[in-house]
Specification:
heterodimer; A: 116 residues; mainly beta; seven-stranded mixed β-sheet; four-stranded antiparallel β-sheet; 0% helix; globular; B: 110 residues; five-stranded antiparallel β-sheet
Chain lengths: 116, 110
Amino acid sequence: DSGVTQTPKHLITATGQRVTLRCSPRSGDLSVYWYQQSLDQGLQFLIQYYNGEERAKGNILERFSAQQFPDLHSELNLSSLELGDSALYFCASSVAEGGVGANVLTFGAGSRLTVL
Amino acid sequence: GEDVEQSLFLSVREGDSSVINCTYTDSSSTYLYWYKQEPGAGLQLLTYIFSNMDMKQDQRLTVLLNKKDKHLSLRIADTQTGDSAIYFCAENSGYSTLTFGKGTMLLVSP
């Protein structure tokens, strides 16, 4: 158990629907990262939050949004779902915002989204 | 932009050494990382190396870094069947984010 908790583990939904993925970071970690893993694209960085504030943005679609709450848990919202959104979505957390020193990310087990 | 390349597959026999290679493009990367992903699990940090180092050893793992060629390798000595997994190389691109390669699937046969 890495200490990073993601729910749900599996989710099956239809095109056009909206889902929310939830992540609780490891105790003491202030940064949360969201990554999307698919066979063709590999592991793609979506977005990072640090202590409630957005810190970095990657290849996140406009249909996707995220936030980090005061208790530091984070949610990734995916809307108007398409078949191509089927993937494994990982949350990771780290102590620091980034910058100085190695930025060690601890990953959750992922949420597997299937869009039919 | 940043890009991390890895070969997709490596097959070795139990007891042999495995060498997984990676090339990266961001010369400003200060740290480079190796992560391991077992089936049905998230990525787990194996080791990382600071960019001013050439080598780092940690038990059965040896990381070699050639900064001039932007080449990173991970050597696993005495590879075991339990080492079968996908191995990801990553560089820190930008202030805080990591850019990952597509992963190398290591298959260890008895």
